[in-house]
Amino acid sequence: MTHPHMLVVIDHHETRVYTTEFTGTQPTALRPYDPRGELHHLHHTAGHFQGQRAPEDPQYYAGIAALVRDAGALVIFGNGKGTSSAMVHLVRYLTKHHVETADRIVGAVVVDVEALTENQLLAEARDFYAGEGTGDDGDTKERS
Q1: How far apart are CA 141 and CA 144, in angstroms?
Q2: Mean pLDDT over residues 82-98, rounded?
Q3: Helix or strand or coil: residue 24?
Q4: How far, in whole angstroms, is CA 25 from its chain's centroid?
Q5: Following DSSP, what letter does each residue of 52-119 receive, concatenated?
Q6: How much of the chain, in percent, has pLDDT values that exceed 70?
Q7: Of 5, 71, 98, 137, which shows the fewest CB atoms inside 10 Å?
Q8: Cα–Cα distances in Å, from 10 out to 39, 55, 109?
């Protein structure tokens, strides 16, 4: 079943995937594999990296890719910028491993994920899809 509009809300703790064409939609939540409750952030994986950042968990991003593969259009909301952003890692992962899905990304928007309620996130996504989330040149905007 193809979902015309999907929203991914991602940070290093969890990912929530919504279909945005309906009000009151229930998210599908995906959390990093952490059987012992020791990993409080996605980017912390087992191993010794001697002061270097631990690599991201590609299986986590593969799970997200599976959830959004039927999206007709996809907007991603996340915190932060650059290598500290789970949103940036997701976009890079999709671009490298799931090109067809990456081609359907219509925006990657920095928002304060923790400060917005679920209804506010969905309203932001609907506004984005209605054309209010992009400039005339199609660039995404930062929102907080």
Answers
A1: 10
A2: 92
A3: coil
A4: 17
A5: SPPPP-HHHHHHHHHHHTTEEEEEEEES--GGG-HHHHHHHHHHHH-HHHHTTEEEEEE--GGGS-HH
A6: 65
A7: 137
A8: 16, 17, 11
Residue 16 belongs to what H/E stretch?
strand 15-19
Whether the CB-CB separation of 55 and 45 falls below 8 Å is answered with yes
With residue 127 as reference, give the H or E element that holds it: helix 118-127
DSSP reduced 3-state for 59 = helix
Domains of the chain with bracketed CATH = 3-30+55-132 (3.30.420.60)
Whole-structure pTM over 0.70, yes or no? yes
* Neighbouring C-beta atoms of residue 52, cutoff 10 Å: 7
Task: Give the pair of three-digit tokens for residue 47.
Answer: 């191993």
The pLDDT tens digits of the residues spanning 96-127 come to 999 999 999 999 999 999 999 988 998 898 88
Q: Is 40 helix (H, G, I), strand (E, B) or coil?
A: coil
Say what the pLDDT of residue 92 is: 94
